Amino acid sequence: xVGVGGGGGRPLFVLFGSSIVQYSFSNDxxxxxxxxxxxxxxxxxxxxxxxxxSRRATQVIEQIFPxxxxxxxxxxxxxxxxxxxxxxxxxxxxxxxxxxxxxENMRSIANxxxxxxxxxxxxxxxxxxxNEEKLRQNTSNALSELARTNxxxxxxxxxxxxxxxxxxxKVIDLYTEIxxxxxxxxxxxxxxxxxxxxxxxxxxxxxxxxxxEAEWEPSLHWKSLPTEFAEDSPYDLVAADGKSTVNISQxxxxxxxxxx
Length: 260
Prior knowledge:
This protein has helices at residues 19-22, 30-37, 54-64, 99-114, 132-137, 150-167, 174-178, 184-187, 197-213, and strands at residues 12-17, 43-48, 75-79, 121-125, 170-172, 237-238, 245-246. By secondary structure, the protein is α/β, with parallel strands linked by helices. The strands form 2 sheets. It has a 5-stranded parallel sheet, sandwiched between helices. Strands 6-7 form a two-stranded antiparallel ribbon. β6 (237-238) and β7 form a beta hairpin. InterPro entries: GDSL, Iah1-like, SGNH_hydro_sf.
């Protein structure tokens, strides 16, 4: 199994989680936005697994993040909880993980990632809310009824936030942050669960806020990181005076949002 270790000198960010991570490059997702912001500054890898719960994550985390990798991540953003919070199925099958086990699984994930390297920093994302009505409308006939409620999301979100406080880890309370927008229920999701572009923008805003405020040395905020090969060159675009060049290596004019 190949780990996430890379090379090239750039910081390495890994997004680790379930479908919220796997789909984070779809629909102007938060992963793709971060990749654009950190272009020429950091390498961003996805280790996302749709349908997974925290139990499956603990079973394979050593394969995904091997301790003997040549390079360990500078940052891991972790999301599990939405699938864990789904209701118990009478068959015993399905993604549901009881809340006490979820708490222990998240503690285990956190402690393992902390043990990788002194340079490895961690941000957890808590369980966001869901649009229950839209979720029911989009449920496939191939699946049994999905018992997914906002109340359960709240419980698992609070558990994630509390375990991060206990372990002194950075955490983004998505359950709260998403609902700060009045129209969150209709604009933040594509199917009632997964983020639309508007929902992803909230995730990115909160991730950048954490990175800007974190007292990490060196800082991992995008404005603090050097731009790769940013030196002036005679091969840059020619300026209007016809005698010099214009270095556009750090221009952000192409972005719809000028991120802080």
